Amino acid sequence: MKTLLKTLCQTSMQAAVARQASLTKPAGSLGRLEEMAIWLAGCQGRVCPKIERPWISVFAADHGVTEEGVSAFPAVVTQEMVKNFAAGGAAITVLARENGAQFEVVDVGVFNDVAPLPSLISARVAAGSSNFKLQPAMTEAQLQAALTAGEAAVERALAAGADLFIGGEMGIGNTTAAAAMISRLCNAPLETIVGHGTGINDEQKQHKTKVIQTALDLHRAAMTDAMSVLQHIGGLEIAALTGAYLHCARHGLPMVIDGVISCAAALVACKVAPKAKAWMVFAHQSVEPAQQAVFSDLAVDPLIDLQMRLGEGSGAALAIPLIKLACALHAQMATFEQAGVSGAD
Amino acid sequence: MKTLLKTLCQTSMQAAVARQASLTKPAGSLGRLEEMAIWLAGCQGRVCPKIERPWISVFAADHGVTEEGVSAFPAVVTQEMVKNFAAGGAAITVLARENGAQFEVVDVGVFNDVAPLPSLISARVAAGSSNFKLQPAMTEAQLQAALTAGEAAVERALAAGADLFIGGEMGIGNTTAAAAMISRLCNAPLETIVGHGTGINDEQKQHKTKVIQTALDLHRAAMTDAMSVLQHIGGLEIAALTGAYLHCARHGLPMVIDGVISCAAALVACKVAPKAKAWMVFAHQSVEPAQQAVFSDLAVDPLIDLQMRLGEGSGAALAIPLIKLACALHAQMATFEQAGVSGAD
Q1: ipTM strictly over 0.90?
Q2: Is the CB of residue A98 less than 8 Å away from at least one CB of chain B?
Q3: Interface contact B30-A308, CB threshold 8 A
Q4: How far is A261 from chain B (nearest CA, A)?
Q5: What ranges do the domains of chain A cover?
Q6: What CATH number has the domain spanning A54-318?
Q7: How far is A335 from chain B (nearest CA, A)?
Q8: What count of other Cβ atoms lies within 10 Å of the Cβ of residue B225?
Q9: What is the pTM assigned to this prediction?
Q10: If you average pLDDT over each of A1-15, A302-316, B2-16, which comes out highest?
Q11: Which of B327, B333, B279 is nearest to B51 (CA)?
C-alpha cells in the first residue's frame, strides 16, 4: 500500500496564526474562516494561501444491490445522470461552472457504457458492482482497479495545476452501500445509520435496513480491515473516491469532502492512513444520518448545514466560495498597525 | 409611521416551487438553497431570480455606555475602524470587494467627526448616544433622525439598482445595547443573553450584565413599545439599521440580516411591522448568545454557522455567494424532461 503521505507545513501555519492575530478584528472573531486560512497555509506552505484552480471529479457507478429495491429511483438514472453531467445540466455542473472549477465525470462502472461524451472519462472497472446481499460487491482486482481510477483522476487534477480537490459521486443505491460501510466501520447500530436516501418511505427504509443487515452478516468474517469492508459492501465509485483521497494526501492536495457517500470513502482512507485527515475539510452536514457517525469517529465538524442530501459533490462545491473568501480576508485585511487601530484594553 | 409594506409575489413563488420539483435531483435535496431561490422569486416577482447588485451599508456610531467599561476595546476604535473601512482594510470591505458589492460606511454618530473620507457618508445625528445607564440613549428626535439616516441608505441603494441589501454596524459597546434590547423585547433573562462581545472575560461580563440590569430597571416604565426600547437602550447605528430594514420592506428590497446587533434592529423592525420579516433572510449564527433569543422569537433559522462574532455585516456578506449559487442552480439545472432522466419509482 502506497501510504507515505505529505505533512502540512507547520512553519506556514504558525505564521498564518500570527497574521490572523494581527488583523483588525477581535481575536478569533472570524471563527472557522480563520481555521480555513490557517489550514490552507499549511497545505500550500505559504502564509497567505490562495485557491485559484479547484477541481471536481464525479465518479459514477452502479450497484448490484439495487436489484433488491433499496432506492426511490430506478438504477437507469445513474447512466441518465452521467449524460446530464456531460451536458452540463446537473447541480454539480452548474456549481462547477459558477465557481470556475474544472469538471469531469468518471465512469468507473455504470451498468451500460455511455462513452464517448464531453467531460466523460471512461475508466470502467465492471458493469456495476455485484449485489452485496449475495456476494462481495467487488473482487479484489476490481477494488484495486477502482482505487487506481481514483488516483488517475488526482493525477489529471495535479497535471492541470489544481489547488483544491473535490470528489463527487453518482450511483443509484449508494446510500445503501455507504450506510453498510459506516455501520461496520464505526460499529454503529443500523437504526441510527440508515436514512431515506433519495426519498424512500419508512417501509422501504425498513426493507433497506434488512438488506444491509443480511449483507453485514454474510460478509462479517471476511471484513477484517477497512479495505475489505470497502470491497465487500462498498461500491466502485466509493472505491474510486477512496483512491482519490489517499492520492491527494500523498501529493499534498487539499480536499473538500462532500456528503455521506464521500464521507464513507474518506473514512476508509483515514482508517488506512490516519494522517490523510490532515488534508481534508468536511464541507457540510447532510440530512443522511450515517454521516454523523463518520464525523464523530473522525472528530471533525462540517463547515455548513444547508439541509442538503444530493451528493454529486454539491455540498463540497458550495464550500469553495467560503474557502476563497477565508483566503481573501486573511491576505487582504489590514493589520492593527497598518490601519492605526487600537488593540484590546 | 410609514409601515405600508410590499408583499412577496405568490404567483412567482408557486412557479418557482414547481420549477424546483422539475429539476434533475431528488425532491428537496438542495435543502435551503431551494428555499432561497423560491424566496427571491417572490421578492423579484419572477420565476428565476438573480442577484447582480448586492449593496452593503455599514452604520457606525459610538455608545455613551462605553464609559461604564463594558467593552474589551476602547471607544476610539469605532472611529479608527471607520477610517479602516474607508481605506478598504476591514473584513467587510474585503468581503464587499470579493463579492462585487457596492459598499459605503455611514457615520450616524461616532464620537469624533472624521469626514471626509472615501466611501464615507456623513449623516451624524449626535456625537454618540447618551449613557443609557443614566438616561435614554437617544432623544425622540435623535431616534427619528437615525431611522431616517437608515432610510436614506436604502434610497441610495435603490437608486443604484441594488437587488440585495446588507446592513452592517460598527460601534464599540453595541453588544451591550443589543443584549439589553433583546432581553427586554424577548422577555429573556440577562444571564442567557449577555455574551463576551469583542472579548471581555467572565468578571467583565458580570459587570456588563449589572450595567444592563440597571438600565433596564431605570427605563422600565418608559419602554412601552419596540421603538421606545430602541430609543432608551439602543444606539444610533442600531436605529439606522432598523430604519433601513423597514424601508427595504416598504420598497421590496430583500435583505440579509447579519449578527446579534443587526438581529436586534431586525427584531424592532418586525415588532413594528411583522410583515417586514418576509423580506429578510438571517445569514448566520453568531457566537453571541442573545441572537438565539431573536431567532426563537421570530421563528427563523440562520443559514450558516461559522462561529463568527465580528459584526460589520461580515456574516451576511458570506451568504452572498450561497444565495447567488442558489439562483444559478434554480435557473440553470436541467429538468427531468429536458435531460431525459427518469423520475422516482
Answers
A1: yes
A2: yes
A3: yes
A4: 15
A5: 54-318
A6: 3.40.50.10210
A7: 8
A8: 12
A9: 0.97
A10: A302-316
A11: B327
